[in-house]
Amino acid sequence: MPRSTWIKWALLTLFIASLAWGLKALGLDVGDLRPERVRSFVLSFGVWAPLIYLGVYGQPVVPLPASVLTITGGLAFGPVWGTLAAVIGSTTRACGQFLIAKVLGREAVIRLLKGHLATVDERIGANGFVTVLMIRLIPNVPFDMQNYGLGFSRVRFGPYALATLLGVIPGSFAFVYLGYSLTDPKQLWKLGVAVFLIIGLIILQRRLKSRRPSPAE
Q1: In a structure prediction context, what are the per-residue pLDDT tens digits for the chain, which is 217 residues long?
Q2: CB 76 within 8 A of CB 44
Q3: Helix ranges, 26-140 (H)
Q4: Would you report the helix, strand and coil content of the chain in percent, each value rounded to 5?
Q5: Which residues, other chains included, contact 63 with Cβ-Cβ below 8 Å and sequence gap of 6+?
C-alpha cells in the first residue's frame, strides 16, 4: 500500500477517534447515537440550540463533515427551519474559510501561478459566480477544501458568497430532509422521499458535470 494511502487512513482514524472522544466528553455515547438521541441533545440547549448549531457549523477553523451537520439540522429543527439553519451555517462557514485563504494564502499562490495555471486562474476569476455555483452544485472535493481552494483563486468575495448561498440550497434540503425522516421511523415514506431527493440530486449533478466546460477551454 502506498505511503500516501497509509497517511490518509491514519488521519481518518485520528479524526474518528477525536470525534468519538469529543462526543463522549459532551455526554454522548458513540454506540448509542440514535436519531432521537442526537435530536434530544441538540434541543437540550433550549432557545440557544439554533445559535449553538450555527456556531458549530459556521466556525471556519475546525474541519467538520458538512453532510453530517446538515443531517443534524434536519433531525433537530425539521425540514423548513433545518434547511434554513443548514444554508446559513454552511454559507457562513464557506465565507469564513474563503476569507482566511484569501488573506493568508492568495499572495503566495500568485507567485506560483505561471503560464497555463495563470490563464485558468484568470478565467475562473472572470466567471467567478458561475464557477462557484457549478462547484457547489457538482461537488468533487470536500466542502472545506472547496472553500480554501476558491479563496486561493482570483474569485471575488461578492460573487463567491452569493453563488455559495444559492448553490448549497438543493443539497442542504435533500440532506436535511433525510435527517428529518429519521425522527419518525413509523412514517417510512419520508425516508423514501429523502432517498429519492438525494438520488435525484446525484443524477442532476452528474448531468451538469458532463455538460460543464473545462476552465481551460
Answers
A1: 455 556 655 655 665 555 555 555 555 554 555 677 778 888 888 899 999 999 999 998 888 888 888 989 998 999 999 999 999 999 999 999 999 888 876 655 555 554 444 555 566 666 778 888 888 887 677 888 888 888 888 888 999 999 999 999 988 988 898 888 877 766 656 666 666 776 777 676 667 666 655 544 4
A2: no
A3: 35-43, 49-58, 66-112, 116-126, 128-137
A4: 80, 0, 20
A5: 144
Q: Backbone phi, then psi, for 30, in 5-degree steps?
A: -60, -35
d(CA 111, CA 158): 24
Cell digits for 202? 446525484
Count of Cβ atoms closer than 10 Å to residue 24 Cβ = 11
171 and 198 Cβ atoms separated by less than 8 Å: no
Q: What is the DSSP letter of 29?
A: -
Contact 120, 214 (CB under 8 A): no
